[in-house]
Amino acid sequence: MESKKPSSIDFVTVKTTLPVYPFPPNHERSTFRSERLSMRHMTEDDFGFLRTLRTCPDGMKWSSQGGPDIEMEQTEKSLSLRLPPKDGERYDWVISLIETGEPIGLGGTCAWSSELGWPALGYIFLKEHWGKGYASEFVKVYLDEWWSLPRNEVELTVDKNTILEEDGDVKQECISAITLSENAPSQNVLKKAGFKFVLSWTEADTRDESQEVTLHGFVVRKGKVVV
């Protein structure tokens, strides 16, 4: 679950905290809610929904994969990563409407170590549910859930720009989010939730490795969520 670290980022090893890893398995996870949304773990019955979600070009172009699933095996692999025995490696959730029970998205921590060194938050919604404020609503309540997890003190190699100089020996923990430079809607969602821009860098485009894309990195610390 580790991402390749860009050479343009300046790393430092620090003492900090992280949630106990592996994460709680699916059968130990409790659903949580916001005003309009309910979050639950994924099951084998979610394959059809996941297939619909991951074959939408407009949504998947913003993902680390860079485009939609083509082969059925791609979606099957994505599902298997969220079921036992792999469930403890991720902390992401099926996002459903409370009013109807309809699943409309997937979000959470899908990378234990992002390009910035910290765990990474991500989300994707069915296109017909864009523009309704669901992403902002999910990110806010998910961060509350994330910070409530039990923690250990660890040594971690992270981008030096994510460390506050005024911190003591144990640095404040962050959770990160990475977006393509042109994904302004997601950047606005992150800023509303208290995330701060850290830096930009370029990487090979997963859709065409002869091309490069520019990525923006953001982080947030506990207690920084904007209401």
Automatic annotation (TrEMBL):
Signal peptide: none annotated. One of its GO terms (molecular function) is acyltransferase activity, transferring groups other than amino-acyl groups. It holds the Pfam family Acetyltransf_3. Keywords: Transferase. Residues 36-196 form the N-acetyltransferase domain. PANTHER family: GNAT FAMILY, PUTATIVE (AFU_ORTHOLOGUE AFUA_3G00765)-RELATED-RELATED (PTHR43792), N-ACETYLTRANSFERASE DOMAIN-CONTAINING PROTEIN (PTHR43792:SF1). This is GCN5-related n-acetyltransferase (GNAT) domain-containing protein. It comes from Fusarium napiforme.
